[in-house]
Amino acid sequence: MKPGSKTNQLGLSEVGRVLKVVLILFLFVGCNKDDAEKDSIPTLEEFEKISLVAGERNEEIKLADGSVWQYRISVPDLENGEKVPFLLNLHWSGNYDSYIESMRCLVEPAFKEKRYIIFSPRIGFGENWFEEETRERILAFLDLARQKWPIDTSKMAVTGYSLGGTGTWNYSLSYDNYFSAAIPMAGAYFGDEKINIPVCVIHGTEDELYPYDLALQAVQDSRDMGSSITVITAEGRSHQEACLYLPYLLEAAAWLENEAWP
Q: How far apart are CA 178 and CA 52, in angstroms?
């Protein structure tokens, strides 16, 4: 961290408290939606329209409330009776195409040599991965995928960058009954609970939104509670360079198969 920076003036603990309050308020606002919106989950009929033909494509399905859910999916050339790992990608905030861009420039190249089904759902601008409606939709989708798709349910992972990285931390903590590994990138985490699945965190040393030193302290706090966390340092990378994290995600992909899923 550079001398004289705001982080150094306040101290890491003060910055951590400020970020934690902001995130709690973020979650609170996101989780107070009308109960009528809770029907925005995929139905079995619509889910079964998702094609598992090999390739990458952008598609959409209708949800139970009539709204549309857009996503990008990458599917390997599946063999009869084969079960493959599954990866959920949580995109960063920003423009309309973040769910596509995060796959094309980062996740798909990192896992192109792997035989995974990769699913990247879209959330709208100003929404987040922690909202009750969003979480219910994701979990309903995962329940159907585990039942209907040729997935090795012991090898399901979640990854994401920035907003998606924070979502990945949250999902690794809350949904270890779904996921067996997590790869958060450039996300916020506070290390206040033990995580029961292996985590590989990727964080840039020049991250101006979630300071690197603060991220390392959160990792150590979580390790002290028994979490298994590997750190990959993106040396010299800032928060605004998501697509340049590809070499580090390639390293994390190897970690996933060699260490998390030996």
A: 21
